[in-house]
Amino acid sequence: MLCDIEGTTSSISFVHQTLFPIAYREMDSFVRMNWKSGAIQEELEEVKQEIAGPGMSPSDVTVDKVIDTLRNWIRSDRKHSALKSIQGKIWRYSFESGHIKGHVYPDVPVNFKKWKDKDIVICIFSSGSVEAQKLLFQYSVAGDLTPYISLYFDTTTGKKKDPSSYLLICARLAMEPENIRFLSDSVDELDAAQIAGMQTIQLVREESAIVGSHPIVSTFDEV
Fold first, then answer.
1. Spatial separation of the C-alpha atoms in residues 53 and 189, rounded to whole Å
2. Are 113 and 137 contained in the same domain?
3. Which H, E and C letters describe 119-156, residue by residue?
4. In Å, what is the CA distance from 145 to each residue of 51, 134, 172?
5. Which domain holds residue 76?
6. Which pLDDT does position 79 carry in this prediction?
7. What mean pLDDT comes out for the span 53-75?
């Protein structure tokens, strides 16, 4: 079982109304605090290289410009691996301190246990960084769910709407695509997984969901 997070295991509102505002609020102080440390140097270099103008060196990009860019990316829900990595590091304190707990639907832990008991491998593929994924499931409202999850994949594997990303996941798992079932609320993601040869099921948990041609369920109980 390869599971998406947002709209599949966890509510979209938790991500957009709880996690994103925390990252937006703390981005300024976090980046300034780590501007010269090694904690996020790789991520900062990615951002600076992308936003450096013609004739500019990445080293010429100011801290203010980087912060403004990252906040703009949060507002537009940009799926940039550097942003997602920095967000995960910001969220770590909030999770570990108990200020927030990761939302999961009630049917998720029940079925994670059921699948695990049947020796079904459970993996996660989300645009959020692997670090952020682990935090959400480790500090979830249902307790620590990480013992059920074998592997995590994020945008460093590839874009979620690109079939090649799902083929890379198959290779990492050493499994044929037809032996993997991808669960997601996103039609575009499901289409990509289907092109790669995976089985697909669409989770329609919210009334605003766009329905595609894939088999549809409203909870994991129906899978």
1. 33
2. yes
3. CCCCEEECCCCHHHHHHHHHCECCECCHHHCCEEECCC
4. 38, 9, 22
5. 16-96
6. 93
7. 94
Nearest to 103 by CA among 210, 207, 16: 16
Determine which helix (DSSP H) or strand (DSSP E) holds 70, and give its type and residue range. Answer: helix 63-75
Closest to 146 in 3D by CA, of 156, 154, 136, 157: 136
pLDDT bracket for residue 32 (50, 70, 90):
very high
Look up the pTM and report it.
Answer: 0.91
d(CA 163, CA 159): 8
Q: What is the CATH number of the domain that holds 179?
A: 3.40.50.1000
* Neighbour order of strands in the sheet with 216-217: 151-153, 123-125, 2-3, 181-184, 199-203, 216-217
Could you tell me the pLDDT band of residue 207, with boundaries at 50, 70 and 90? confident
Neighbouring CB atoms inside 10 A of 168's CB total 15
Higher pLDDT, 209 or 88: 88
